[in-house]
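Thread: uridine-5'-diphosphate complex, take 2
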Amino acid sequence: MIEKEYDYLIVGAGLFGSVFAHEMKKRGKKCLVIDKRDHLGGNVYCEKKEDINIHKYGAHIFHTNDKRIWDYVNQFATFNNYINSPISLSKGKLYNLPFNMNTFYQLWGTKTPEEAKQKINEQIAKYGSKSPKNLEEQALSLVGKDIYETFIKEYTEKQWGKKATKLPAFIIKRLPVRFTFDNNYFNDRYQGIPVGGYNTIIDGLLDGIDTKTNIDFFEERDHLEALADKVVYTGKIDEFFEYKYGQLEYRSLRFEHELHEIENYQGNAVVNYNDADYSFTRIIEHKHFEFGKQDKTIITKEYPEAWNRGKEAYYPINNDENQQLFKKYKEESLKLENVIFGGRLAEYRYYDMHQIIASSLAKVEEISRAEQ
Ligand code: FAD
Ligand code: UDP
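Output below.
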């Protein structure tokens, strides 16, 4: 048998593919990482403009409870002490997020946890006992009508392009509800932004590894597959199988970047626009992720959009119908001994960065154990 040039062809230079390549190189394997975009890093890629690191594919805040994952990323970058505390603009008023004592005060004037709890309990009394079957029921039973209608319903429906009654409850479970004056969006112990942006981490992971950008796997599939013993695929799972069971649903986004000749546009990195009147969901002001002092500022408006085959898929839509379809592709994928499927699109899961890193490390460890 002719020996192939690479042990692994890795399709997708996002975090999953980059961690996989890095770990396999450490184990003496030769990897080629390709990406169809004109850069490495996948969705965490940052572009420097006006000396500001622009999160080109939307705000990325690193957070984890897992010390192992925190230590892992800290090998490649120093993290600053940024804490995500988004502001919400709703019906002309500003509120703190996530839902906490500040939000309750701004919404109802409640000053103590007891007052706030009483208010919420009155509101959820009608829904509390039922087990929630969709996002709307989940939200109503967790925080009640006022919060649901002020912050969740319109934002969620524009974000996902579906009625909240047609969306899975788990999406909203990500949002903390607290009876302390604490605007930290995440409950995790470790949080921050890599100083110099996320490319520092990707550059560290891919140091010494062969990479090629502007290459779409499907355009040169036979040639590329012939280069390596195994393929690690991090693109859309249904596309890999030529959509043979049908198309999974995704949500796409459009990012509009604007340069403003002022020092400070909105005073915060993230402002959510919760009303349906705005077709974007949030405005990101990138310099605030790194406490920037530049004279100018760059902002990004994030517009949710319907996905079709020509567009980037950013979010899987994990409702029952799609999960059923995904199962078929998953079963098909398990039959392929020489292809490993990983990452947000191939696993069709709403994963955050720390979860992607953990799953890539777990995959490498599983393969290494099997080879011993
Ligand atoms: P990706 O980064 O999507 O990488 C996959 C790569 O594969 C892409 O570069 C793509 O171009 C390439 N590819 C696909 N098909 C092909 C093909 N046919 N040929 C060649 N290349 C191909 N996580 C957090 O922890 N905190 C956050 O604050 C956060 N904010 C987010 C905000 C937004 C708007 C989005 C969309 C995601 C956010 N995430 C956040 C999630 C985070 O982006 C992901 O968990 C992570 O980047 C996924 O890594 P990945 O390698 O699976 O996928
Ligand atoms: N969400 C909402 N109002 C908000 C922020 C979030 O209703 O002000 C809901 C919405 O359904 C969203 C989900 O919570 O899809 C998760 O939001 P988050 O900002 O945590 O996720 P991201 O879009 O950054 O992955």
